[in-house]
Specification:
Keywords: ATP-binding, Nucleotide-binding. The protein is α/β, with parallel strands linked by helices. Helices cover about 40% and strands about 15% of the residues. α1 runs parallel beside α10 and α4 packs across α5.
C-alpha cells in the first residue's frame, strides 16, 4: 500500500492544478474538463481487437446500428448520474451468466465516445474476472497486487481510448470478500478518483445471489444497474436482488438482456 500511496503522490505532483483540492471527493456536479490530466496520459494505451470485441458482443466501441441500444442506455444512465452528481456505478445481476460484463464493457466503451468524459472500468467480479477476456487485455498482475503495493496503479491500469481506462484482474482472487472489505479499499478508490478525476467509474460486480461479494462492495458506490436475462432470470430472483441492492445504494434501473417479444412474460422472469 505504501508503494501505491507513493505513486499516487507522485501523480498528484505532476498535475498542472495548483488550486486546493475539493473537500468533498465526490462533487455533486459532474467535472467535465477540457484537457486530460498528466496522470491519465501516463497510463499505457492498448489497442483493442475489433474481431475479439465482436466475439464477445462488444459493439459500442464505434457508433453504428449495432451500438444503438447501448447508446440509449448510456445516455439515460449519464443524464441520471449527472443530475444527481453520481460518479460510481456498479453493474450486477441476480444470478451469474446474465450478461452484466457485456453490459459493463459496452457501457464503458460507449461512454468513451463522449470526448468530454473520462471513464474507468473496474473488474470487481474478483472470484470470476472476465473483463480482460472480453476486451482482450493481458496484464500479468492481479488487482490485489495493486492494493498491497506490490504493483503501482499506473503500471497496471491501461487506456483503451484516450478517455477510457480499464482495471482488470487476470485470475480469481483467493479471498475476494476480504479484499473488498479491506481497510485500504475505500481509500484506494478515493485516491484514484482524486488523482485521475474520472467522470464515471463503472464496476463490474459479481451476481447478488452468488455470494456476499457484491453486497460487501455496494456501499462504496453511488448507484447500481441490475442486469437480468430474459427467459432465465426468475421474477423472485429479480425481486430479491433489487431489494438487496436498494439496502446499500441507489437502484439506477434494470436492464432486461436478451429480451424478445416471446420472452416477455412474468412466468419466464
Amino acid at each position: 500500500m505504501e508503494k501505491l500511496q507513493a505513486a499516487l503522490a507522485k501523480a498528484r505532483n505532476q498535475r498542472d492544478w495548483r488550486n486546493d483540492p475539493p473537500k468533498d471527493k465526490r462533487p455533486r456536479k459532474p467535472n467535465l474538463p477540457q484537457t486530460v490530466p498528466e496522470p491519465w496520459e501516463a497510463l499505457e494505451k492498448v489497442d483493442l481487437s475489433r474481431g475479439g470485441l465482436r466475439q464477445h458482443r462488444i459493439v459500442a466501441h464505434d457508433a453504428g446500428r449495432g451500438s444503438t441500444n447501448f447508446d440509449v442506455l448510456r445516455t439515460k444512465i449519464l443524464l441520471q448520474m449527472q443530475q444527481n452528481g453520481w460518479k460510481r456505478l456498479a453493474i450486477t445481476s441476480p444470478a451469474p451468466s446474465s450478461g452484466k460484463t457485456t453490459v459493463a464493457c459496452n457501457l464503458a466503451l460507449g461512454l468513451g465516445r463522449q470526448s468530454n468524459l473520462r471513464t474507468m472500468l473496474f473488474d470487481f467480479d474478483l472470484g470470476d474476472p472476465s473483463v480482460h477476456e472480453f476486451l482482450g487485455i493481458d496484464r500479468p498482475h492481479r488487482l490485489s497486487d495493486v492494493l498491497s503495493g506490490e504493483v503501482s496503479f499506473d503500471k497496471h491500469a491501461v487506456r483503451v481510448r484516450n478517455n477510457v481506462a480499464v482495471v482488470t484482474s487476470p485470475e480469481p482472487e483467493p479471498d475476494p470478500t476480504q479484499f473488498i472489505l479491506s481497510d485500504q479499499m475505500e481509500t484506494f478508490l478515493d485516491d484514484i478518483q482524486t488523482v485521475y478525476q474520472p467522470d464515471i467509474m463503472v464496476f463490474d460486480l459479481p451476481a447478488i445471489l452468488s455470494g456476499d461479494r457484491a453486497r460487501a462492495f455496494l456501499k462504496t458506490v453511488d448507484c447500481a444497474l441490475i442486469v437480468a436475462l430474459a427467459g432465465r432470470t426468475k421474477f423472485n430472483q429479480l425481486d430479491i436482488c433489487e431489494r438487496e441492492v436498494a439496502e446499500s445504494t441507489n437502484v439506477l434501473g434494470v436492464v432486461m438482456n436478451g429480451c424478445h417479444p416471446s420472452a416477455m412474460s412474468q412466468d419466464d422472469l
